[in-house]
Design a protein that fits this description.
The protein is an alpha/beta fold and 396 residues long. The chain is 42% helix and 15% strand. Helix 5 (66-84) runs parallel beside helix 12, helix 13 packs parallel to helix 15 and helix 14 (347-355) packs across helix 15 (381-395). Its EC number is 4.4.1.13.
């Protein structure tokens, strides 16, 4: 793989080409700039493409065979060990269609029945709506915000607020790390504090680490919550996937990692085990390829490109009066507060109307974020420049 060629392929992308490709991101609102749903415009690793093409050529498009599922579990365990120093066994890895199906299973069958669900906000939108679908109340705990090293906002968990919710009887904490949509990469100290609270109050932690491969800041690294010494295995479920790092979300193959008591409970549930039959054979092939040395090498090029996009985003938007961009440390999603502009009342609607730019409405990420929006930065520099220009013109 030639890193320069990969980067050059990223730079060729234009809105016209992306619309022709027909992704959800670029076809939902025809004629607009797509910057909303967490799809990347930057494609996937060549080794993943080759694996999928071979599967089509071979006609292996049926159900997932056990030996391939085992390959995914083994590759996942080895990646966690080599990348993050987290030692897990392949036997502790289950395949599921996606992260949200694993959250649903944890709420339905592997946590205290009816107990409230704590969700730090701003949050990935479905985390706020899924609890009610399982007879649970969602307890929003707004994040704390202070100034980061770059002068922009930096978000952190409100540990006192989380503890209050646990003390009041909540039974599950949804922990998103790296944190969609604010882009924080949680520190070991923060994770240790969460683990202490979980153990003290007997609260299950559902750790969504789907963006773990996408830590962009070179000074930081992803720390799996379950790798911390205080994280109780009986109270911990970790969900991950290659779907964001390698842009294969449509292939439906996520991984649930559970050990100790959590693994025992998972294995004892026929309904949870049945979910493992719903993972896709193509998704499994993509996962094995993505986690190979060639797939990881491509990921490194992608991370560097995205970090460059973050720099452009932060530098240019910070100069606009009334605009407060958050500089993401991980993920390719940026959080933007337009409270000081004429777009404050409804940023998503205003940007669509004034700039033909589609972003996620901050109101869908939690109470109190009406002046905010989530913007997808996983695109070419050409498209990113148009996104930034559109925002600048819309708020000036």
């Amino acid at each position: 793989m030639d890193p320069a060629a990969v980067t050059a392929s990223f730079d060729t992308l234009t809105p016209e080409l992306l619309r022709q490709r027909g992704s959800l991101k670029w076809t939902w609102r025809p004629g607009t700039l797509g910057a909303w749903v967490a799809e990347s415009d930057l494609g996937t690793a060549p080794v993943v493409t080759e694996a999928l093409q071979q599967a089509v050529a071979d006609g292996t498009l049926g159900y997932l065979p056990p030996q391939l599922a085992q390959q995914v579990a083994t590759a996942t365990a080895e990646f966690q060990a080599s990348r993050y120093g987290w030692q897990v066994s392949a036997q502790e890895v289950s395949l599921l269609p996606d992260v949200l199906s694993s959250l649903r299973a944890v709420l339905e069958r592997h946590s205290r029945p009816g107990a409230d669900v704590i969700v730090p906000t701003p949050a990935y939108m479905p985390f706020l709506t899924i609890p009610a679908q399982h007879g649970r109340r969602c307890v929003q705990v707004p994040a704390l915000k202070d100034s980061g090293a770059d002068g922009g906002p930096r978000w952190s968990l409100d540990l006192e607020g989380i503890e209050r919710a646990m003390r009041d009887g909540a039974g599950v904490l949804v922990l998103c790390n790296p944190w969609n949509p604010v882009g924080r990469v949680l520190s070991a100290a923060e994770l240790d504090a969460v683990a202490s609270l979980s153990a003290r109050y007997g609260v299950t932690v559902f750790a969504d680490e789907i963006h773990g491969p996408l830590v962009l800041d070179p000074a930081l690294r992803h720390v799996p919550y379950a790798s911390r010494p205080g994280a109780d295995p009986a109270l911990t479920f970790t969900a991950t996937a290659v779907s964001k790092g390698w842009n294969v979300a449509g292939l439906k193959c996520a991984q649930l990692i559970a050990s100790g008591g959590a693994r025992t409970r998972w294995e004892s549930s026929p309904l949870s085990r049945h979910l493992e039959m719903e993972a896709s054979i193509l998704g499994a092939r993509a996962a094995v390829a993505a986690l190979s040395p060639d797939g990881v090498a491509w990921l490194e090029v992608l991370r560097g490109y995205l970090w460059g996009n973050v720099g452009l985003w932060s530098q240019q938007l910070a100069q606009l009066p009334g605009v407060e961009p958050t500089r993401p440390e991980g993920t390719y999603l940026a959080w933007l507060d337009l409270a000081g502009t004429r777009a404050a009342a409804s940023p998503a609607e205003h940007l669509l109307r004034a700039a033909r730019l589609v972003v996620n409405d901050g109101r869908s990420c939690g109470t109190g974020y009406e002046s905010c929006c989530r913007v997808n930065l996983a695109t070419s520099r050409t498209v990113l420049a148009q996104i930034i220009q559109g925002i600048s013109q819309a708020v000036s």
